[in-house]
Design a protein that fits this description.
Length: 340
């Protein structure tokens, strides 16, 4: 796959100065200021192919927003090189902005006091979108996101979900080849999240649009991303498929049972099974190491000993996988992902 994004030794260091509080400290800071250096992104390398959806994950302060801002061209790197669609984002801004779209959950591109429709017209003029293309795309996007009825109302009266959907239209009208999403579903209810994820999936499928997504919502990643890059303390600590990210903790599944009789005194823990949750004397969830026992053998074994009325089998929650990665530190992960 030809890379559309190629990042080499990307580094961003912020330098700020400490200022104490109070009059004395303020006056003192005129003469002497203590320098604070933050290595927000530290020597990161990756490339992303056309049509890929890549999730960037990491704990608070890991450097995700800094990385995405550099990829969008909003921030200059301290060192390293970024090539996106044959452009240097920060240097070739004019050429570059027509090729990309961006939705930042915490920052609006819409103008607060006018309806989104007027902001859309503003983008039509900025990007020089032909009238027919504009109306066709607007029709398609508003239909997909189900927001025809809201685009004429002033932005300030829209709900968060409605506004975010309008942000997507704003970012997509000029048909970008790459879409950058920074926390696009933050604060949204489940229905709006589902709609937005479906929209991104469709744009990716229909238009082969590449998408880079930072999020704290692991469901966004599970639902959308083909690939995951995990950043911690500014460094890349994992870069592979979601499946491999799961394998990091071993090939495990969670099986929840509702038993017909009480299993309060039954011991389920053994070499391949651990009890992870007991909701009642009848309901519990077991974690099964499927590298040691197949899921069908496991269920057969349980059903021979206990009668149950309900069962569900799920993948290991992503939250747990990610927490494990953050806690283990980079060296551990590097060796594990190499071994997978
Ligand atoms: N303009 C700035 N000046 C100084 N330090 C900054 C600036 N912007 C970010 N930082 C610092 O850089 C580090 C990385 O911040 P960044 O916002 O990229 O993290 P993040 O992974 O997006 O975090 P979050 O998930 O909390 O949004 C943090 O320690 C942050 O305090």
């Amino acid at each position: 796959m030809t890379p559309v994004i190629d990042v080499k030794h990307l580094t961003k260091t912020y330098t700020t100065y400490k200022r104490g509080s109070g009059m004395g400290q303020t006056v003192k800071s005129f003469f002497h200021r203590e320098k604070v250096v933050v290595h927000a992104v530290n020597d990161i390398n990756f490339s992303i192919g056309q049509g890929e959806i890549c999730g960037i994950l990491g704990p608070n302060g890991a450097g995700k927003s800094t990385a995405i801002k550099m990829l969008c061209g909003a921030l200059y790197p301290t060192s390293g090189d970024i090539r996106v669609l044959d452009c240097s984002p920060a240097k070739d801004r004019r050429r570059y902005v027509g090729k990309i779209g961006a939705v930042f959950g915490q920052k609006s591109q819409l103008i607060w006091d006018i309806p989104p429709m007027d902001s859309f017209h503003m983008n039509k003029a900025i990007y020089g979108i032909a009238a027919r293309d504009f109306s066709n795309r607007l029709e398609e996007l508003t239909e997909l996101l189900d927001i025809r009825h809201v685009i004429e109302k002033p932005t300030r009266v829209l709900s968060l979900g409605e506004r975010m959907k309008c942000e997507f239209v704003m970012a997509m009208l000029h048909q970008p080849e790459i879409l950058f999403l920074d926390e696009p579903t933050i604060g949204l209810d489940v229905i709006a999240k589902v709609k937005i994820r479906e929209f991104v999936r469709q744009m990716n499928r229909k238009k082969n649009m590449t998408c880079i997504l930072t999020t704290h919502d692991l469901e966004d990643v599970e639902e959308l991303a083909h690939r995951v890059i995990v950043i911690n303390h500014g460094e890349k600590v994992f870069d592979d498929s979601l499946r491999r990210l799961r394998l990091f903790l071993g090939d495990k599944k969670r099986v929840s049972f509702t038993f017909v009789e009480s299993v309060r005194d039954t011991v389920f823990d053994n070499a391949h099974t651990t009890v992870v949750e007991r909701l009642s004397d009848f309901q519990l969830t077991l974690e099964v190491d499927t590298a040691q026992i197949s899921i069908s053998d496991f269920i057969e074994d349980i059903s021979r000993k206990h009668r149950f009325s309900d069962i569900s089998v799920k993948e290991l929650p992503m939250q747990q996988v990610i927490m494990n990665i953050y806690e283990n530190g980079e060296k551990n992960i590097d060796s594990t992902s190499a071994a997978l």
